[in-house]
Amino acid sequence: MAATDPIAPSGLALFCPAMSGADPCTGSYKPAQAPEGFRSPIDADGSMDPAEIESYVRAVNEGYDLVKGSRATGGSTDLTPTRLLGNFCLRGLVNLLYSADFTELCYGFMALRRTSVPAMELASDGFEIETEIVVNSLRRGLRIAEIPSHESERLNGVSHLHPVRDGLRVLSTIVRARFSRPEPDGIGTATLAPDSLT
Q: Is the pLDDT of residue 175 over 80?
């Protein structure tokens, strides 16, 4: 999903060809007890389990602005060694530069509180959008949680990820956000570590 697209109609999780793709989403799912203003992009390739959205809903209901899934605690049968290594290095850099303690970075299954999205100032339209959401949330002092999420083998489609090109775009996003000037309104302070929910 491109950063400029609507994240979802109220209370809906979207099924998109890819979170960072520009194609229109293909359907929606209304989780039970979804708060008004809850948004959860989800890939339509079958690798993400919609049943997990209930866990994201619970975390948003507890007051988190961003809830991000973690394959490190939930497992994956789709990660290649190259993607695993890239995610490890980029996640380590985010943890170092932002004094965070994430177990996952480059995974698009997450939930956002609609009212918090403007503070994230999202501008990316590639695979780096997932990282931009995370680092801009850190810079703005938004409340972040990580929950276990399992990534299965994709059921359809092919990956459009180019490890070197997209990895460099993610790297640029991390460094640019860390060393750019703070915004004048100074909303919040950087979250030191995500809360882990199980």
A: yes
